[in-house]
Amino acid sequence: MKKLIALFMLTGMLISPVITKAQDASEEASAGDSTEMVEEAAAPAPAPVVVEDDIVVEEKPFHQVIKDKFIEGDPTYMTPVLICLIIGLAVALERIITLNLATTNTKKLLAKVEDALDQGGIEAAKDVTKSTKGPVASIFTQGLMRYSEGIEMVEKSIIAYGSVEMGRLEKGLVWISLFISLAPMLGFMGTVIGMIGAFDSIEAAGDISPSLVAGGIKIALLTTVAGLIVAIILQLFYNYCVSKIDSLVNDMEDASISLVDILVKHKLTK
Predict the structure, then answer these.
(1) Could you say which DSSP state residue 205 is in?
(2) What is the C-alpha separation between 140 and 144, in angstroms, rounded?
(3) pLDDT tens profile 86-121
(4) Which residues form the MotA/TolQ/ExbB proton channel domain (predicted)?
(5) Is residue 17 part of a domain?
(6) Contact predicate 179/234, CB 8 Å
């Protein structure tokens, strides 16, 4: 029993320094960890790094976008559509200017003709109409020139010359109508040719790949859009010209009836 106790005591004496060293090491480690934690807590947190986005997307001007799309659509197919737009606009602007210059204040002209008839007769009335520009004044001049042949001849002359003036007003509209029809056709032709090129690329490669057909389809879509835009623009100008011609024709008809009434009145009073 005493030997067993002595053995336990000897074992305890041998193990105690190791335990003590382990405790000291653990205390030092814990102290070091606490010190590092204190230092980390004391140290200020690093400021977040703010990365400024310096990439700014620059918007292209409208004319540059149109130019890029024109080139992307292949000038071979886009140029005929552009020519239709230029010529169509030129004809439309010429017609608009001509029709606006042909507009006449019919009430004022009728009042002048009536005063001239009362003061100087038919010749004075002719001088008034000849010095006035516009289709209405030209019709009046033709009617007054037939006054000596009777009122019926005046009416026939007004009707006949009115048809001539109406034809002059409608001059050039057929070209605008042509370009309205031609521009989409040229666009569709570019569409068909672009699709044919896309299928040729597929056939040559033996595989369907988006990169192969994208170019042809893009040309097809751009030419179609260009043709439709040109047709829409020219259609607006065409409709304006037609409405202006209708207004002028109505004025000519009303003024012609009023002129016949004035001549009948003048003949009766004479």
Answers:
(1) H
(2) 6
(3) 999 999 999 999 999 888 888 888 888 888 888 888
(4) 134-253
(5) no
(6) yes
For the chain, what is the largest distance between any 2 Cα atoms, rounded to a whole number of angstroms? 172
- The answer to whether 99 and 168 are in contact (CB under 8 A) is no
Query: Each residue's pLDDT tens digit in the chain (270 positions)?
Result: 444 344 344 444 444 443 444 445 444 444 444 444 434 444 444 544 444 444 555 677 766 777 777 777 777 888 999 999 999 999 999 999 999 988 888 888 888 888 888 888 888 888 888 888 888 888 888 888 888 888 888 888 888 888 888 888 888 899 999 999 999 999 888 888 878 877 777 777 776 666 666 666 777 788 889 999 999 999 999 999 999 999 999 988 888 888 888 888 877 666
Q: Quick check: 180 and 151 in contact, CB under 8 A?
A: no
CB distance 259 to 113 below 8 Å: yes
Q: Is residue 195 part of a domain?
A: no
Q: Residue 168: inside a domain, yes or no?
A: yes
In the chain, the number of structural domains is: 1
Under DSSP, is residue 150 helix (H, G, I), strand (E, B) or coil?
coil
Answer for the pair 106, 255: CB distance below 8 angstroms, yes or no.
yes
Tracing tokens 């009430």 back to the chain, one arrives at 107
Q: Which domain holds residue 115?
A: 73-187+230-269
Q: What angle do CA 109, 111, 116 make, to 5 degrees?
A: 95
Residue 12 within a domain: no
Instruction: Calculate the alpha carbon distances from 224 to 72, 170, 210, 218 in Å.
Output: 13, 30, 20, 10
Displacement of CA 145 from its chain's centroid (Å): 51
